[in-house]
From TrEMBL:
Residues 1-211 form the ABC transporter domain. Keywords: ATP-binding, Cytochrome c-type biogenesis, Membrane, Nucleotide-binding, Translocase, Transport. This is Heme ABC exporter ATP-binding protein CcmA. GO terms for molecular function: ATP binding.
Length: 213
């Protein structure tokens, strides 16, 4: 995957200014930078959730944005929100994403078996994050886009996360993650986004959010 000269305005502010990156099978990239630098914005662009104001994303040499449905099948996106349905049990939530695949590996990877039949609204913050990460595993997508994946996880769960990330790469998968803390990833490249010299007041642009004019 190759992203070239990605630029994004949020409100009046140029948040991403001609950012480029590339990633091959088995590789991982960490996005770092201060609050507001545009890490989440870049992940959303790579996920096809937000149109960049300039630049392109190539997948196997083809424009990834030309067919967003096809691109959606290539990526598993973990945002700050865990995207779980609170009224459903964990098993029900995971089944939605499993495409018929067995849930056992994902349940075991994040030690979730004892919570299988509990409604997700009863989960702690860390348990919800573990469930959301299990969902990522089940998506069976080559590219994982993870926004602060270890947020809320205890030390043991961070180790489990490290195992899962390593296995995904060994299977040829790719990972791009944002983080403010060290993540258990070996041989990882870094892309540091500089951020604004002085943080400006954001201009509400909810009206544009997700719009592909
Ligand atoms: N919905 C929005 N409307 C307008 N501006 C926004 C919106 N969401 C984010 N921004 C602005 O875009 C900029 C980049 O935000 P983004 O969330 O991508 O940063 P980040 O690097 O992920 O930050 P953090 O480390 O705090 O998670 C910030 O200046 C923020 O104020």
């Amino acid at each position: 995957m190759l992203a070239q000269d990605i630029s994004v305005f949020r409100g009046e502010r140029l948040v991403l200014d001609t950012v480029g990156l590339s990633l091959s099978s088995g590789e991982a990239l960490l996005l770092t930078g201060p609050n507001g630098a545009g890490k989440s914005t870049l992940l959303r662009v790579l996920a096809g959730l937000r149109k960049p104001d300039a630049g392109q994303l190539l997948w196997d040499g083809e424009n990834a944005f030309a067919d967003r449905t096809n691109h959606a099948h290539r990526i598993a996106y973990l945002g700050h929100q865990d995207a779980l349905k609170p009224g459903l049990t964990l098993i029900e939530n995971l089944t939605i994403f499993s495409h018929g695949a067995p849930l056992d590996e994902a349940l075991d990877a994040f030690e979730l078996r004892h919570l299988a039949d509990a409604p997700v609204r009863l989960f702690s913050a860390g348990q919800k994050r573990r469930a959301a990460l299990a969902r990522i595993m089940l998506a069976q997508a080559p590219l994982w886009l993870l926004d602060e994946p270890s947020l809320g996880l205890d030390v043991h769960s961070v180790e489990r996360l490290g195992d899962v990330l390593r296995r995904h790469r060994e299977d040829g998968g790719m990972i791009i993650a944002t983080t403010h803390v060290p993540l258990p990833l070996d041989n990882v490249r870094h892309l540091a986004l500089p951020g604004a010299p002085v943080e400006e007041e954001p201009v509400d642009e909810w009206a544009d959010e997700g719009a592909w004019a």
